[in-house]
Records
---
Amino acid sequence: MIANEAVRRLQAILPPHCLLLAREDLKPFETDGLTAYRNTPDAVALPETEEQLKQVLAACRETGTPVVFRGAGTGLSGGALPVDGAVLLAMTKFSRILAIDPLARTARVQPGVRNLAISEAAAQYGLYYAPDPSSQIACSIGGNVAENSGGVHCLKYGLTVHNVLALRALTIEGEELVIGEGALDIPGYDLLALMTGSEGMLAVILEITVKLLPKPERAQVILAAFDDVGKGGAAVGAIISGGVLPAGLEMMDRLAIEAAEAFVHAGYPLDAEAILLVEVDGTQEEVSEDVMRVRDILLAAGATEVRTAKDDAEQKRFWAGRKAAFPAVGRLSPDYYCMDGTIPRKTLPAVLTRIAELSREYALPVANVFHAGDGNLHPLILYDANQPGATEKAERLGADILELCVAHGGTITGEHGVGLEKIDQMCVQFAPAELEAFHGVKACFDPDGLLNPGKAVPTLHRCAEYGAMHVKGGALPFPELPRF
Amino acid sequence: MIELIERIRTATGPLAIRAGGSKDWYGEATSGEVLDVSANRGIVSYEPGELVLTAKCGTPLAEIEALLGQNGQMLGFEPPRFTGSATLGGTLACGMSGPRRPYAGSARDFVLGMEILDGNGQYLKFGGQVMKNVAGYDVSRLMVGALGTLGVLLQASLKVLPRPQAELTLQFECDEAEAIRRTNEWAGKPLPLSATAWLSGVLSVRLSGAHSSVAAAHRKLGGEETAHGAEFWAGLRDHRAAFFHDDAPLWRLSLPSTAAPLDLPGRQLIAWGGAERWLKSDASAAEIRARAAAHGGHATLYAGDKGCGVFHPLPEALLKYQQRLKRQFDPRGILNPGRMYP
Ligand SMILES: Cc1cc2nc3c(=O)[nH]c(=O)nc-3n(C[C@H](O)[C@H](O)[C@H](O)COP(=O)(O)OP(=O)(O)OC[C@H]3O[C@@H](n4cnc5c(N)ncnc54)[C@H](O)[C@@H]3O)c2cc1C
């Protein structure tokens, strides 16, 4: 339970409409996009000014009250899940686009601005903000920075970290950090990289300057069908080693295709085991050349069908199916659990085969949707939370899939973050010394451990309990060295 | 590597980390026994279809670029080589990127993962060989530009890029303000720009991409095509161009690309679409720094009397957290102490 003293301090700082304490008001904040985890917060603060925000943080520091930041609450790893005894600090009221500089191609925005709103505001200048998570109509740019979010165009245009020029952040110690101002690099250590993807563990992001890009002259989507998932995976590698860097390169397997087709009628071939969506963009000439090259490569890789979107409408439909894949799969089953491992592309066939085996072993269907160009998998595990033990079973299958990714040289999270969800798998991916280094980094910014406690980095104790010390091929790296 | 670990663990005083020595002149002077890391070399893995290369940090850039070249790929950030001895580790530690940077990304942008030894000689591995990875804080990118003060870089994985089919350099006569305006305007249009430089009244622009799109952009932009493009950009990239070679102090100002002309005495070479301004000037450090800061950027001294400090002074709050990070990774303060900030 939150300390009474902390509540009194918050009441003195915030006007009543900026502080929620009643149970019915708190309920909507009990979960983020990972709805399997719920915890009703004790208090939700919704400051409207930076001054209020500063005072709220000071009050929390002085009363030893933990703080969990929240953007739009679309995160898929429980990053914004309330922690017992904490204040949930929602950044939604910081929702202004402060400036767009069309010549410099930058936008300076508050953290609560929705991702898509930036591109909408920049459109009048022929510019857009490149990282486009499928949740872009809802998620906040502050949340994007905190998670280092990606989207379907990362392969060519990068993740959030590649598209942020400057940040203003506030530490729990009340220090304001001005990290960059719009130049392409900053003096000193690269705190921009460190803050991006730090999951609300180091500081609160107050303001963000993002890079805007010119809209490409033309973008063309090509759909290819395969009678075998492995062939589709191999085609991805062939396109890239063929010298084409597509703007987007996405893959869906049979179950995902069927779900998307039933939901949005995208026109996907229903007899395919896998489809690839390849978007090439650039100048008119470049796109024409790349389309020909990609077609040839796809056919040589054994595609049973290659379709080039005829017009804008068909192009939009092809993407709509992909972007709606999660909710589409959601219609097949009462609940689904979205995973986020990344693997080296060449291991795609092996990993997919093993996921199919695991799916049979657990008797839970898995639909696969992925950012194939980046090797970022989103296996969606279908289950029914009302069946006793089903949630736990889905979580165990998910954990097995993530550990499979690590075993193939990959990672447990490509873009959704660790949060609370993948905290145990951190023990598999990292050695104790590395986890200690992460704790050390956190302690530099948050010495009392008040920000989002218990998330993102597991304690060594927790890892010991999880019973998964980092053993690679049966041997610890440098067994002669002490581990702790 | 075991030897390196021993050297660090048993060190009783500062260590000056050194590989190819091509950037000995960069940064503040550091005292200390030389820790030669050049023997830790070799390409560990390279898969053109993955767009990923992993190499030990003592590997010469020349070796990496040769292998990539054979496969029609390249380092997208076009790092300076200065002399032939530049290594991957030195390049990442200095965080240096060349002419292509504004259009393709910086050294840190291409880093996917890193293995390091911290100041206690402890082996640590962050990131990996995959394109997207958000597990844990982004410590590998934090190492880029930290000048070895947070760890000895052992091995790095980088994203690499396909080489453009065609490149072409156009030249235009114009003054400084016009060059800044044009390069920014062009960058806001879908043109295949890959480098710009303004020097002595001539704006050079490099276009890269498919043959047809480079040709189409040439038609749109006009300008004179030069036959010496490749040499010109290499001269800028490696600081071999005549501009860099006289006795006047050399400053690098990193500014928002649209910053107005600096109006400082001396000669300038403006790269990165206006965001990087090389200045040969006898103006005082204080004046240059004040001007850079007023324009929203910072100034670094590349050559000249280092008495005034090489790097732009940090605001107190930033310095405090940076010092804590230094203590965290190197509690004994033995890795390149003072090379970055005293
Ligand atoms: C249907 C669906 C599709 C999705 N598709 C994608 C996708 O394609 N790619 C992708 O990367 N993600 C995707 N996501 C995940 C999610 O949308 C992103 O992680 C997003 O960036 C979260 O933003 P948010 O504003 O909702 O943050 P929240 O969920 O509110 O918070 C996320 C984390 O950020 C922290 N945080 C929020 N604001 C701040 C701030 N101002 N300062 C400091 N910390 C802060 C929180 O503490 C928390 O740890 C998807 C989610 C859904 C539901």
---
Amino acid sequence: MNPAPTSASLLSIRRLSKRFGALRALDAIDAEFSGGEIHAILGENGAGKSTLMHVLAGLLRPDSGECRIDDQAIRLGSARAARSAGIGMVHQHFALVDALTVAENLALSLTPDADWRFDAVAVGEKACAFAAQVGLEIAPPSAIVRDLPVGARQRLEILKALAGAGRVLILDEPTAVLTPPEVRLLFAMLQQVRAQGRLVLFITHKLREVKEVADRVSIMRHGRVVGTYRAAEVSESQLAELMVGKLEVSPHIRRPPHAGATVAMQARELSMRDHRGVVALDNVSVTVRRGEILGIAGVDGNGQRELFAVLAGLATPESGQIEVGGKSLSALAPRVLRQVGVGYIPPDRHREGLVLAMSVAENLLLHRNVLRRFQRHGLLQRPAARRWAAALMQQFRIKAASLDAPLRSLSGGNQQRVIVARELSQPLAVLVTSNPTRGLDLAATRAVADALRAAAADGCAIVLISTDLDEVFDLSDSIRVLYRGRLSDAVKPPVDAERLGLLMAGIQAGKEPCNA
Amino acid sequence: MQRLINRVLPSLLALIGALVVSGLAIALSGSSPLLAFEALLDGAFGSLDGLSEVAVKSCPLLLTGLAVAVSFQAGIWNIGAEGQLLMGALAIAVIGSRATWLPQPIGLPLALGASATFGALWAGIAAQLKLRRQVNEVISTIMLNFIALGLLSYLVQGPLMEAGGRYPQSDALSPEFLMPRLSPYRIHLGLLLALFLAAAMQVFLYRSVAGYEIRATGLSPEAARLAGIDVRRRLLLALLLSGALAGLAGGIEVSAITRRLYERLSPGWGFTAIAVGLLGRLSPVGVVAAAFLFGAMDAGSNAMQRVAGVSSVLVSIIQATVIFFLVAFERRTWFSKISAEPD
Ligand SMILES: Nc1ncnc2c1ncn2[C@@H]1O[C@H](COP(=O)(O)OP(=O)(O)OP(=O)(O)O)[C@@H](O)[C@H]1O
Ligand SMILES: [Mg+2]
């Protein structure tokens, strides 16, 4: 064993800069990180957090500056160099190969470069053993990644990075789609990693998590690190202020809808199996009334994806029916549902929400009703459509180089804002959302929450499928829990977290745990 | 400006790369690459006749290139432009040698319409197979190429064989169905029609709602579907349009150039079209440029063979190498969808 170097710094960054066109995404950043610490990175959407991490992981070549690990300069702009220097990364957006199996994906980071053999079975076994060792539950090694729920993909990403990481583990918003028990598990793992003298860089928008797990926290703003603090010495509200300046607390008093309000959407006795033949929805009935926000909590993978898909008309249930505004629909397709005023914020923004190769403006138009509105003689009324898109961009503070910037170039949170802006721009009878604030910064999360409340106040019925308990608590008029495809009875807030936690683990008050 | 450069650069690099490689090949075979290229250029652009031939060779490539572009933009890999072209040729040959009572101003447009319809129907088979039976369109369109070729070969040796019965070819079209040419050259009115259609496709794809929906469907079918776009109808529309354009290419070729039907009617335009479409980055404007480039190479190749002694087949090598280089220079190609997106 080598003695630890006296300068405690494990990773140091010197005057790192990266520009995209006129935008300084990283503006001469200096930073020191030591081994054996969990270092949180906070910052608004578009502050440059992901860009910095991509540079560290060798995925982006900076314009200038240097990075040292243990006082050794690492070659920048090479993912391989970063990896052999011991940097592993979990991306904000999944970097898994969708068409491959779980085992094959893990093999990509578990198999040493020099090894030309590929033995998926052996890798699968190794992966399972490794997963068991760190206590992370993963999908069966032979499952195809494409078919996994978002939470399971996230766990797989974390496992992959853990396996590959030597000295530095980078996590870009890993908790955005995890539920509290999963987050706790992740934190326990991170503490283990820290105990081994490694460095964890951890990006999040959730201040509570910073307080809970981080030793130090750096705050980024407009491509600079504007301050580094001991997590124990700053309060959550101080952090919030450091990040975005003073936040006004909007007093959101909203009268819950009265029980007699008309039913906006009703789904009856939905049942469906996933493609493996496992029951994903088991006789689920959902009713939302005008002006009501119905929270559907639960650990991801318990039927959330299928419930969203069925309510969106993307998947056909084996049985059951859906009515909107008291009328049954001619066909269960997004087209028809959109027509009667149902809006959607989908769980996977890259797959179902956006067209990455199109521009910001074109993505704001990606909605049947919007297209209809700007159509004349089959042609798109471009000037009018662009004016409208520009107004939305301003209203929702979407940070992008221009209306014509490819959506791909926006930061994760700004991409989410595009979806939210588009969906809320239309008159809504019903809004079905899945983790609507995923990846949004503090200010934007509040803005979306306020927008949802405002929509509800205008009579929109909202189905809020979310793994974020805070969000569910904060917004819902009543809460139901999805567990193994079954929906619990509604509980009215205030609910104690304990009770909800039990429901999410499948334990009903006074009943035995329902084993499948 | 920057964006224009970004869009054109890969195609330009691919072209230069292909010229370098084929230049080396010529040098290795003991001829002078400079002389060969000079002859190629001179053959294509050195005379009015050459220019006219460039136009003649470009026309079918332009239309089939558009066919490829519109279907690829929708995310449908229509490899069947060749078969659709042959069906279009068949349609005009049947009508053009029989329906002689029609006056030209009515007969010719009608016959060309029939060509487009036949092409669309032929593509429609693949569309139905895809939408109803989830049959991969790459496989079905390739198979339909073979069927079209087989059918054509049977017909010109049997039912449609010319009255004299000497060669496996159909009767000549009656004059009412011939595309007007600018004599004494072979350049014909069909080229104007093709250019007009290219402009129309440009407007359709980038200015119309249906075009937007087709592009969104091709780039991200799930997102398009959730947006409420009728993805199946858009796929059908794109494939039918594609077939119609290819069919029209066949119709124009028969009515303007060959004037009758025979087996080796097309030297593989429907396949070269894929190269033209990709080189033109699937945009109609780009396809026009790519089609003229390939057309010029075809037109100049004979002169090159005559003057420099380099086989005219070399032109096919250049065209194929262009595709290799395009794929190599393209970071996000249609062939490798990268799943990790930097955000
Ligand atoms: N490839 C790119 N081309 C152009 N601009 C880019 C590109 N990648 C990032 N940017 C811009 O750089 C800025 C920083 O982006 P980055 O993704 O680092 O933000 P972030 O701090 O991770 O935000 P978020 O919390 O929303 O994920 C953004 O304004 C973004 O639009
Ligand atoms: Mg980010």
